[in-house]
C-alpha cells in the first residue's frame, strides 16, 4: 500500500513539473542577450514557447518556439478565429540567430499555399506555389535572382518551363 502512495505522489509531482516546462510564456518573460534568448525569471537560456495575444480579446496572434536560446519556428495566426489557425510558419536555422530556413504560407484550412527556401545567408533559393496541394509554380534562385529552372503549370497551356542564368531568361 505504501508503494502505491509513494508512486502516485511521485507521479503527481513529475506531471506537475513537466506541465510547468511546457507552459508558453509571454514576450515580457524573455530577453535577448548576445544573440541568445533567456528567461527573465532565472536568467537561464530559454527552450520552449512564447505566445503573443491581442490585448483586447486575448486572440492568439503569434507563437515563437525556441531551442537552447535560438528561435526555431515562428507561427503567425489568422486573427479571425479564437481557434488559432496558422497563416504562416517560418522555420529558422538552429545554429544561427534569426536566419530563415523556410517559410510556409498556409490557407485557412491549413494547406500550404507557398513555400520559400533560404540559404544560411538569407538569400532565397527556391520558391514554390501550390493549388489544392498540387505544385503549380516553382522557381530556383541564386543571389536573389532567378537562376535555374522555372516551372509553371496552367490549365490553358499545360506545363511551361523556362531557364534563367543570373536573372536573365535563356532562350
UniProtKB/TrEMBL annotation:
Residues 1-19 form the signal peptide. Keywords: Signal. The keyword Signal applies. This is MORN repeat variant.
